[in-house]
């Protein structure tokens, strides 16, 4: 039923380069092979993120020069390894705080915003055909975070940095989808000539789950898919795990769960029909 696969963890920095200059592509290679054997495209997730970083990166004593070289080596090696086999890469993941300021992390504190251009240019050189994305959450609502993302894209374009898409993660709480805000924000990005995608859709429910909750969840999934369909330049919807069996939600948001279109027995939930109706 899917047209594309995305690894939840196996292409992240801690999985791919656990020690400096030691690369391990086993998990990533498995999912790419599965995609190719079953006729699906791949989203690569992700290259530069503050989370799931190995300690050697987080706690290294870097100068701007040495950290630039670390980023370039990581991005070049990973993107080259998969060159020609990845439709789009989340090159930069979650660069902003919700108030629109840049997130303090090892990359920003050493290199300021220049780390973003460094990673994007390196990725582009390694696979010129791959679409390069910046991905973040809470871009689904109007406010300072989407404003900051629009400014960042404008600055990158003005500087000639390769950037082709913005990912709207879309980790929603039940009943909190605003289709009008989502559409407005997507169109602010596509107006700049970039594509957009819903990259990590799930709709978490406060436990215990009722039948009414599942109907609301169906409506929420439908309206997200409808919104993407209504925006020319919204190229796809990725769900963040298809089954509640493997979803990250219950461990990350205690008291919440049941966020996916399939339940833990791999039976379809009403959300599944919501997705189908939204296209
Ligand atoms: C999550 C994975 O699903 C979990 O298995 C892992 O323990 C933590 O990361 N935003 C992102 C994703 O961009 O990479 C995160 O994935 C969820 C939030």
UniProtKB/TrEMBL annotation:
Keywords: Carbohydrate metabolism, Glycosidase, Hydrolase, Polysaccharide degradation, Secreted, Xylan degradation. SMART domains: Glyco_10. The lineage of its organism: Eukaryota, Fungi, Dikarya, Basidiomycota, Agaricomycotina. Residues 1-278 form the GH10 domain. GO terms for molecular function: endo-1,4-beta-xylanase activity. The keyword Iron-sulfur does not apply. It catalyses: Endohydrolysis of (1->4)-beta-D-xylosidic linkages in xylans. Its EC number is 3.2.1.8. It comes from the Eukaryota. This is Beta-xylanase. It comes from Boletus reticuloceps. Belongs to the glycosyl hydrolase 10 (cellulase F) family. One of its GO terms (cellular component) is extracellular region. GO terms for biological process: xylan catabolic process. Pfam families: Glyco_hydro_10. It is found in: Secreted. The keyword Hydrolase applies. Pathway: Glycan degradation; xylan degradation. The active site is at residue 200.
